[in-house]
Amino acid sequence: MELFQTEQTGYPHLVVPGITAPLGFLVGIGCFDYWFRWAAGKPTLPEDHSQHGAKTWKDYFRFNTDHKVIGIQYIVTTMFFFLVGGLLAMLIRAELAEPGTQLVDANLYNGLFSSHAALMIFTFIIPVFAGIANYVLPLMIGAPDMAFPRLNALSFWMLPMAGLLFMVSFIVPGGAFDAGWTGYAPLSTGAPLGQSFFNLGVQFAGASSIATALNFLVTIITMRAPGMTFWRMPLLVWANLSTSLLVVAATPFIAGAQFMVLLDRVLGTNFFQAALGGDVLSYQHIFWFYSHPAVYIMILPGFGIISEVISTHARKPIFGYRLMALALIGIVVLSYTVWAHHMFVSGMFSWLRVPMMITTLLIAVPTGIKVFSWLGTLFYGVIHTKSTAMLFSIGFLVTFVIGGISGVMLGMVPIDIHVSDTYFIVAHIHFVLFGGSVFTVFAGLYHWFPKMTGRMYDERLGRVHFYLTLVGMLGTFVPMHWIGMQGMPRRVADYAVQFSSWNLVITIASFLLGLAQLVFLYNMYVSWRYGPKAAANPWRAKTIEWQVSSPPPVFNFPDIPRVVGGPYEFGVPGARHVIMPGEEAEVARPAPARAEAESGGQAPAGAQ
User: Fold this and answer.
1) In whole angstroms, what separates CA 189 from the centre of its chain?
2) What is the mean pLDDT of residues 198-225?
3) pTM
């Protein structure tokens, strides 16, 4: 081993524990007990589900196979990493408040923005959607749990391992990984030791995502309640089905790329080392073949959340339900054809630019269908501006459309070349991932908070959180478009004096954005402890999770419910979505055929 080690990238006595310590923790906490007994030929322990549910807060720190407990574990853990990533962002903005060096040197600055992005993407945005779906989705389809509960628990416990590896990189010799979340070779192959911890962290986060996606796929396909055809599934279920297809097919590419970088660094292979015959450009192709679909992994579940919130709070059937579902599938297919638009200035074949530009513009069509469907749902609906979940949904529509328009601009070769590596890119990605994804996360958390905790939150504080977040978000990211168009480069710790005024404004707005999240934390904590008790269905929603108590029973349902109609038939006389165990009601026939078709109602014979 010594032959292949250098002080810069090696340190086997640190890299090897970086692999074995997380695995040892997973073994110690009991993630593999069942499979070890099976592999050793011993009688497996029967699962009596006695560990289901959480009786005290300590149960959330144990291996637990209850999907509701795992959902809460996911959400709380990802919110922790969200705060850590946010603190790193505020350090970045404090440094950029004025030209010159303020708080950190250039090397530490590189580590800050790299860690900020990695934590936000791999340990917050992607897994927080898995947390919300873990809690809601089995209830929503009438299932008692996920298809593979032990795999579900293992998926969660791999996530904190990834986040800790990212964070530990700050204290290893040479400092944190500093090649950005993209980890481009050859920057990454020759980067300090912290880069190896990034490579390892991505393996744990990727394995967690793939296992979770497989679990969702099997659960959705095989465990839907009787009567729930595909055209009766809520759109959140459709969104997670689409996302899981993306994760299973795309995530192995980034895992493979990071593994190859690790081998280049630790064992001296030459996958991406040009001086030794490696192909540097192939790293970008492999990386973006995952990472552009990953943008949709980070937003499709949010599309599902927005559909649930808007339909329920506006008291309207989803406009164009089936087209909404098909648009999700269209995005999945097209997302694999656009990766090279990230590489217009990389030196790839120039003839490849035009087809990639066309496919990039084409993917705006299914996305546009969804935006128009949400607007159609809101048209003549009841828009409750006092509902925090609804406010975040409307805010999402505005900010995501702006991010989408700048995305279309970046799909065009001339504009992309002009603004490549400038703050215009930073503005675009944050309008999509913060104004898009994070707004949908907040909409979902406020919407399902009563179901998860059995308590109501303070709507007044929720509205304060929304307005401060909206103002802080716009103040932070709108000016970045302008200074980006004027040429301010991204990923630099210093900049020209001509950009100083706008950077000061951006820094002030970013601190307001950070302050707004303290309001959210206070509201969630106090409401969970002391908020008024929630009714089973405070929003008068139609889907199954709202037909059980808040919080739901430990085993969800005494018997499996029966689905008899679409999930969004608001205002349709006599229509209902589900017959719960013990209910003898006869379902009135009814629903005008047109309304059913629009809301995903009565499916044609054989539609399943």
Assistant:
1) 28
2) 96
3) 0.91
